[in-house]
Amino acid sequence: ASVARVFAVEAAASLAVTERQFATVESFAAMLRGGRRLYPRAAELPEPTERTLIGGIASIVSGHLLAEEPQLLPGLEPELTELVLMPYVGPSEARRISLA
Fold first, then answer.
1. Dihedral sign, CA of 96, 100, 32, 19?
2. pTM of the predicted protein model
């Protein structure tokens, strides 16, 4: 019975969670894709760039939440902002925006 539960119930729940996570990453990635128009070199970025950026941020945030360190998240905002914006506005503008 427990094996059946793993394959039937938990696998379905896990799949549903994975589908929601993918949809959320894709939603944020779509917003970033618009940034390709702002910086000429951004048009040449590999197709999965936006998903990679959002997935990386999600991983960092999740790591702090799992480590029960949510208080550290606000301090990450400037660095994560700079990393996300860099491909779309260039390094110096990304730094300026992240520190504003």
1. positive
2. 0.76
